[in-house]
Amino acid sequence: MARGYHGEMAYLERTAETRLNPATLLPGVRSIICVGLLYKRTDGYQPLAGRDNRAPVVPTAADATARAVGRVAQYARGVDYHVVLHRMLRQLALRLSAALKDVRWTWRACVDSAPVLERELAARAGLGWIGRNTCLLNAGLGSYILLGELLTTLELAEDEPVTERCARCTRCIDACPTQALRAPYELDARRCIAYLTIEHRSAIPDELHRLVGAWVFGCDVCQQVCQFNHSTPLGTHPDLIANLIPPEIPLESLVTLTSGGYRRLTRGTAARRACLSMWRRNAAVAARNAASRPDAPRTDSA
User: Fold this and answer.
1) Of the four listed, 62, 169, 196, 275, which is most buried by Cβ atoms within 10 Å?
2) Do 284 and 278 meet the contact criterion of CB atoms below 8 Å apart?
3) Residue 71 — φ and ψ, nearest 5°?
4) How far is it, in rounded angstroms, from Cα 23 to Cα 32?
5) In the 8-state DSSP scheme, what is residue 113?
6) Which of 238, 191, 235, 197 is nearest to 216 (CA)?
7) Which of the residues 43, 112, 159, 174 is marked catalytic?
8) Domain parsing of the chain, residue ranges
9) Cα(183)–Cα(192) distance, rounded to whole angstroms?
10) Model confidence pTM above 0.90
11) Residue 2: beta bridge partners?
12) Distance (Å) of CA 148 to CA 119, 189, 224, 282
């Protein structure tokens, strides 16, 4: 925030003190139980051209641009993860209450909509380490992990953090289309495609249009190139891997998206975080990128 990396996300400034002091969320909090839920899909790994010795197994962002389709980040395609994780955290709290019987305690379930430093807490709880792309990485599960927290007044023993294993790898930094990863562990959200397409409410800066490529909601590039996502398991929770939103959407239908079409497209998903005008804005940028390619079909709106 001191460097302005948070862009238009003023809520990060407003809630800074709360993030540093969980007791403002739950008076008397003594422990935080951190959980993770895998959501990886079949396009979760994308080999790097010239660096991996096998052909790509999923369409690339360049392919999507050439075909005039917009890409959607994996986490947003299924049922809204806030709903899923809150429900599971409540179930966990009820099971703990039943097991503890006469012990008096209180709890509060949090997902990322609450002002909690969840990646740092998850790392301290041993769920993984914070990688160079600023995502939580787990050696056996990769980085496609949605995080949740159960704040409790219980006094629980701490888990041990795990050792970072990124070594000298710079795949995520090298692959970031907009160079939002300024350095290892240093993300300038103002250049991040996920921020630009979801959190940034005003116009996307002209100099970044071409770099956004085909992404219309979110971006998975820094995770797709990560070696820890190469052979990790796919998500199995039926709500998270549901195909409520397709991975690619024809841009022609998005640039003229109606309010009814927007409601149908985003119903029940986290993709409603971006309003209708933002979806249209993102699609217009992606459509211009597609139209600028000589080998790409033109849309009427491009």
Assistant:
1) 196
2) no
3) -100, 145
4) 11
5) T
6) 197
7) 112
8) 11-40+80-152, 61-79+177-223+245-291
9) 13
10) yes
11) none
12) 9, 22, 22, 29
Q: How confident is the model at residue 301 (pLDDT cuts 50, 70, 90)?
A: very low
Token pair belonging to 86: 């809150």
- Please give the pLDDT value at position 46: 87
131 and 226 Cβ atoms separated by less than 8 Å: yes
Residue 99 has pLDDT above 50, yes or no: yes
Cα atoms in the Cβ-side hemisphere of radius 13 Å centred on 287: 19
For residues 181 and 186, give the distance between their C-alpha atoms in angstroms, rounded to a whole number: 6
- Percentage of the chain lying above the pLDDT 70 cut: 93
Tokens (6 digits) for 80: 């809204």
- Judge contact between 14 and 139, C-beta under 8 A: no
Nearest to 285 by CA among 195, 206, 199: 206
Catalytic residue status for 112: yes
Tens digit of pLDDT for each residue in 137-156? 999 999 999 999 999 999 99
Mapping DSSP to helix (H, G, I), strand (E, B) and coil, where does residue 32 land?
Answer: strand
pLDDT digits (tens, 9 = 90+) for 202-240: 999 999 999 999 999 999 999 999 999 999 999 999 999
Angle ∠(82,164,35) on CA atoms, nearest 5: 25
- Nearest Cα neighbor of 70 from 294, 280, 293 is 280
Nearest to 195 by CA among 98, 282, 103, 292: 282
Length of the chain: 302
In the numeric block, the tokens 């012990």 are attached to 103
Helix (H) / strand (E) element for 217: namely strand 215-217
Place of tokens 């979806």: 279
Listed in sequence order, the residues at least 6 apart from 104 whose beta carbon sits closer than 8 Å to its beta carbon are none
pLDDT at 300: 41
The per-residue DSSP string of 45-104 comes to --PPTTTSSS--SS--HHHHHHTTEEEE-GGGSSS-HHHHHHHHHHHHHHHHHHHHTT--
